[in-house]
Amino acid sequence: MSATVIDGKAFAAKVRGQVATHVTALKQDHGITPGLAVVLVGEDPASQVYVRSKGKMTVEVGMKSVEHKLDADTSEADLLALIQKLNDDAEIHGILVQLPLPDHLDEDLVINSIDPAKDVDGFHISNVGLLGTGQDSMVPCTPLGCLMMLRDHHGSLSGMDAVVIGRSNIVGKPMAQLLLGDSCTVTIAHSRTKDLAEVVRRADIVVAAVGRPQMVPGDWIKPGATVIDVGINRIDKPEGGTRLVGDVDYESCAAVAGAITPVPGGVGPMTIACLLANTVTACCRANGLPAPEGLTA
Ligand code: NDP
């Protein structure tokens, strides 16, 4: 068997197109332009790249993009004051503080100072609680992107066995909550899981969010299962240079799976698309309008 490749790049372009359509309608029908503010503290090169591409795509879908770049030694008080200003700004519907923050800043405190209604990363403790209790919330972008791809591929996920490998607050746990919300039977595996291979072999859906290059081999995969690879790992190429790989061994898994996301070009592009989708959702909710269908959990 050779798996269907789930093209996250194409799907993300489609989602961005839907976002752009909603943005146009918000402008024309209500005179509202959704606005996203991104706050970057320090000069981490990877974070700078992410922030640049988030800003570019925000503008491309017709939204207002605001970037705040702060020095690495910015005090907590100054950062919290900026967030408060953005919380109070009616033209800003989404606020994202790029992580990781420099060590002297308390990440939990900073994230929880964002107005939960503007928390487009979905990391605020209120949104975590709302998601856990099945209520409308802002949903973390990466798991939301995985869910959208799974729904697109399968239609209903009801009754499927899903295994999420990884229990981080930004991917593993919210992913498991979303799959549970779609009536999957969910197992969360982690570094202490006994006989991970056997656990994964039961799954109709495998979501790998570990951060270990090519850790999941094809013989862990149930024939026909859907494999969503969240991992982004850079490894050395034998001929020199580096390349990106996921947390699953793509070749051997694709030979057994029914469908699989590649790395790059799978989950990665969906993350920014879902950030834009969350910003439109936040804007609609702030203005008493229904959240756009198909762009929420
Ligand atoms: P974390 O490091 O926060 O979490 C990793 C999880 O994997 C932990 O729960 C850990 O278990 C578990 N784990 C580690 N080793 C093993 C093992 N041998 N067997 C089973 N489980 C194991 O990572 P993130 O969730 O933040 O990210 C995971 C991956 O996804 C990374 O490669 C990251 O780069 C990528 N990522 C990709 C995004 C995208 O847009 N595509 C966005 C975010 C992340 P324990 O809790 O027991 O330590």
TrEMBL record:
The gene is folD. Its EC number is 1.5.1.5, 3.5.4.9. Pathway: One-carbon metabolism; tetrahydrofolate interconversion. Residues 6-121 form the Tetrahydrofolate dehydrogenase/cyclohydrolase catalytic domain. Keywords: Amino-acid biosynthesis, Histidine biosynthesis, Hydrolase, Methionine biosynthesis, Multifunctional enzyme, NADP, One-carbon metabolism, Oxidoreductase, Purine biosynthesis. Pfam families: THF_DHG_CYH, THF_DHG_CYH_C. Residues 140-285 form the Tetrahydrofolate dehydrogenase/cyclohydrolase NAD(P)-binding domain. InterPro entries: Aminoacid_DH-like_N_sf, NAD(P)-bd_dom_sf, THF_DH/CycHdrlase, THF_DH/CycHdrlase_cat_dom, THF_DH/CycHdrlase_CS, THF_DH/CycHdrlase_NAD-bd_dom. Catalyzes the oxidation of 5,10-methylenetetrahydrofolate to 5,10-methenyltetrahydrofolate and then the hydrolysis of 5,10-methenyltetrahydrofolate to 10-formyltetrahydrofolate. The keyword Amino-acid biosynthesis applies. Belongs to the tetrahydrofolate dehydrogenase/cyclohydrolase family. GO terms for molecular function: methenyltetrahydrofolate cyclohydrolase activity; methylenetetrahydrofolate dehydrogenase (NADP+) activity. GO terms for biological process: L-histidine biosynthetic process; methionine biosynthetic process; purine nucleotide biosynthetic process; tetrahydrofolate interconversion. One of its GO terms (cellular component) is cytosol. This is Bifunctional protein FolD. It catalyses: (6R)-5,10-methenyltetrahydrofolate + H2O = (6R)-10-formyltetrahydrofolate + H(+); (6R)-5,10-methylene-5,6,7,8-tetrahydrofolate + NADP(+) = (6R)-5,10-methenyltetrahydrofolate + NADPH. NADP(+) binds at G166, R167, S168, I232. Homodimer. It comes from the Bacteria.
